[in-house]
């Protein structure tokens, strides 16, 4: 059963949203909305660090990787964005070389937006389950560099941070086992993911219902109900969306981990894993307890995973 052997994250220094007013062209009203209503006070940014440097900073904190490099059969790059570096630069290949993982199969998964991190975890688990070596491991790298102006914020929804995470995944670990996973994409026929006015209205209309459906499907896959969850580790899109979601799902607000929204911004598909590490450091995950990771991304992609600590 797919398990998290270890998780590490790297969060670059955070700056106040107010300092992004000019770079992002924010109005006074938008600054107030992001900070006072959405709870996005500070955003992780690393203007002097490349994507490869950010990923290596996260992987470098993964102590469980040291000495086990030969067991890593797969390196899976979870990308919320398709393009995060100028051609022909390949940050993933740079990371592979720096970590000494030349023997591993290396590839990226994308096109699920900020739900791609959970997709990558599922893909890693699927590959490991089929691998003849029961001791094989996968390294999943999640998070994105805000390489273009398009990637720096989603208008009136969230502001993107550059935090990164590294996950060491096994097929049969003793804890943090994935019991259920479900994903869904409600895409457009033309494949466009930009939030034009029409697309934004449709996204807002379906968001809560589809997210709830995907969460319930993942819970059913795991054989448990909402009331069995100790904690929800969401994507850090904004505080309002999770206040509404909690009410819709019947999950008390104190079981939804929202502490990082004010500290990091929305770090693409790395959010659930950043939140996992924070929750574990705070002692919020009890042995044997159930918790939920969930995300949504541009293009109306949704994902949820149920794990047991």
Describe the structure.
The chain is globular, with a radius of gyration of 18 Å. The mean pLDDT is 92. It has 309 residues and is of the alpha/beta class. The chain has helices at residues 21-24, 28-37, 51-60, 91-99, 116-130, 197-222, 239-249, 261-264, 271-281, and strands spanning 3-10, 14-16, 42-44, 72-78, 105-109, 137-142, 153-154, 158-159, 164-170, 177-185, 229-233, 290-297, 301-308. Strands 1-9-6-4-5 form a five-stranded mixed β-sheet, with helices on both faces. It has a four-stranded mixed β-sheet with strand order 10-13-12-11, with helices on both faces. The protein has a two-stranded antiparallel ribbon with strand order 2-3. Helix content is 32%, strand content 24%. The protein has two domains: 3-170, Peroxisomal Thiolase, Chain A, domain 1 (3-Layer(aba) Sandwich), CATH 3.40.47; 177-308, Thiolase/Chalcone synthase (Peroxisomal Thiolase, Chain A, domain 1, 3-Layer(aba) Sandwich). The chain is built from nine helices and 13 strands.
Task: Reconstruct the topology from this structure.
Blueprint: E1 3-10, E2 14-16, H1 21-24, H2 28-37, E3 42-44, H3 51-60, E4 72-78, H4 91-99, E5 105-109, H5 116-130, E6 137-142, E7 153-154, E8 158-159, E9 164-170, E10 177-185, H6 197-222, E11 229-233, H7 239-249, H8 261-264, H9 271-281, E12 290-297, E13 301-308
Parallel strand pairs: 4-5, 4-6, 11-12
Antiparallel strand pairs: 1-9, 2-3, 6-9, 7-8, 10-13, 12-13
Helix pairs in contact: 3-4
């Amino acid at each position: 059963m797919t398990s998290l052997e270890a998780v590490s994250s790297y969060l670059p220094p955070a700056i106040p949203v107010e300092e992004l007013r000019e770079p992002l062209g924010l109005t006074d009203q938008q600054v107030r909305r992001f900070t006072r209503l959405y709870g996005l006070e500070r955003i992780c940014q690393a203007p002097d660090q490349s994507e490869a440097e950010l990923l290596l900073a996260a992987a470098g904190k993964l102590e469980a990787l040291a000495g086990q490099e030969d067991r890593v059969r797969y390196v899976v790059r979870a990308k919320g964005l398709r393009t995060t570096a100028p051609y022909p630069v390949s940050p993933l290949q740079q990371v592979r070389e720096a970590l000494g993982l030349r023997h591993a199969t290396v590839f990226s998964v994308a096109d699920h937006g900020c739900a791609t991190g959970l997709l990558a975890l599922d893909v890693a688990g699927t590959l490991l389950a089929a691998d003849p070596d029961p001791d094989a491991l996968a390294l999943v790298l999640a998070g994105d560099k805000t390489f273009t102006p398009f990637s720096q914020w989603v208008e009136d929804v969230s502001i993107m941070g550059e935090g990164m995470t590294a996950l060491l995944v096994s097929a049969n670990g003793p804890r943090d086992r994935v019991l259920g996973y479900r994903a869904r994409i409600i895409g457009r026929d033309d494949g466009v993911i930009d939030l034009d006015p029409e697309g934004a209205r449709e996204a807002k209309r379906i968001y809560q219902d589809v997210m709830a459906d995907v969460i319930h499907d993942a819970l059913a896959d795991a054989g448990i109900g909402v009331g069995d969850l100790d904690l929800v580790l969401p994507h850090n899109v904004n505080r309002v969306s999770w206040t509404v979601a909690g009410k819709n799902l019947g999950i008390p607000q104190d079981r939804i981990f929202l502490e990082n929204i004010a500290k990091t911004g929305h770090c693409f598909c790395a959010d659930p894993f950043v939140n996992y590490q924070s929750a574990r450091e705070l002692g919020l995950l009890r042995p044997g307890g159930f918790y939920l990771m969930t995300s949504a991304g541009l293009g109306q992609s949704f994902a949820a995973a149920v794990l047991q600590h």
